[in-house]
Amino acid sequence: MPIYFQSKDIVLPGDLLAEGDYKAGTGTFKENSKIYSAVIGLFEIRGKILRVISLEGTYIPRPNDVVIGKIVDVSPTNWKVEIRAPYLANLPAANYFEKPIDPLREDIRRHLNVGDVIVAKIVSFNRTQDPLLTTKERGLGKLRGGRIIEMACTKIPRLIGRKGSMVNMIKEETGCRIVVGQNGRVWVSCKKPEYEELIEKVIRKIELEAHTSGLTDRVRELIRREKGRLEK
């Protein structure tokens, strides 16, 4: 009963995944005794069940990427973090605290709990290990207040701009704090909530017009026009 791919391999529609007594899970289909992929995605083996997690709109972790994640589970020495990827990421306490802690004495939920939002860097990710995070670098850690705006991961480079030109212009024009994650999440904190709504409008414009030239100038014009309307 051969399996032709390993867990976390990227497969294409029509790829023959396995033959034999296996069950077709999500993203697969079975013909006779053969199981094929129905989508582009990550292959996963769960006992006798084979499935493919679609990559459409999904973030694939890469080492050194900065991501914005949400804490979804806590153990005595580790946080589970949702980062818009097919797999949850791990943030060990050792990658958060500057000094070693005693898990019998220190409840790490006092520092990060379920629902909290963080900006972190991916240390490693491979087919044998879920994404591993750290916050022990400048500019990383817990994000307080503000709001999260999600956009297509593929449009993140356009939001950042060449050498940060686009996002820096948006910060200067609005006075807002902005953190951009490579996983398609943007954290925004402004003194006025109306400005946070304005930045979401700007992000949607960038998504729609990412392929066009002169976008930075049009975004600047949009911001100034909307600022004038808001300040009347």
Biggest β-sheet description: 6 strands, antiparallel
Which percent range fits the helix content? 10-25%
Average pLDDT works out at 92
List low-confidence stretches.
none
Q: What general outline do the C-alpha atoms trace?
A: flat
Q: Any idea what the CATH superfamily of the largest domain is called? A: K Homology domain, type 1
CATH fold-level label of the largest domain: Ribosomal Protein S8, Chain: A, domain 1
Structural class: alpha+beta
The beta-strand count equals: 16
Task: Characterise the protein shown here.
The protein is an alpha+beta fold and 232 residues long. It folds into 3 domains: 10-54, RNA polymerase II/Efflux pump adaptor protein, barrel-sandwich hybrid domain (OB fold (Dihydrolipoamide Acetyltransferase, E2P), Beta Barrel); 66-143, Beta Barrel (OB fold (Dihydrolipoamide Acetyltransferase, E2P)); 147-230, K Homology domain, type 1 (Ribosomal Protein S8, Chain: A, domain 1). Helices cover 21% and strands 34% of the residues. It is built from 4 helices and 16 strands. The strands form 4 sheets. Strands 8, 9, 10, 11, 12 and 13 form a 6-stranded antiparallel β-sheet that branches. A 4-stranded mixed β-sheet has the order 1-6-7-3, with no helix packed on it. Strand 15 (177-180) and strand 16 form a beta hairpin. Helix 2 packs parallel to helix 4. The longest helix has 17 residues, at 193-209. The radius of gyration is 21 Å and the shape is flat. The model has no long low-confidence stretch (mean pLDDT 92).
